[in-house]
Amino acid sequence: CETVLDQIYQAYAESHESDPPEISDGLKELEELLETLPLDDNNAVFNLCCRLCTAYEHKAFLDGLQYGAHLMDELKNRT
Predict the structure, then answer these.
(1) Hey, which of 6, 35, 68, 77 would disulfide with 1, CB 3.0 to 4.6 Å?
(2) Measured between alpha carbons, how far is 18 from 23 in angstroms, rounded to an integer?
């Protein structure tokens, strides 16, 4: 981890208990679609999907922290 934010995200990412049903169901559906592809293409598409999901999760996590910080600042400045 290069930053404290990255360390916090890493701890968050490792603390997940299990995926909600919509993610588990989506991964099963993706797996069924990928079964029709040759193994190399299957792996390439699956790995790309995983990288995109991880990048989106990381961005959403950081955005959430930023919005929370703005909210705290707004609440602090109201009094």
Answers:
(1) 6
(2) 10
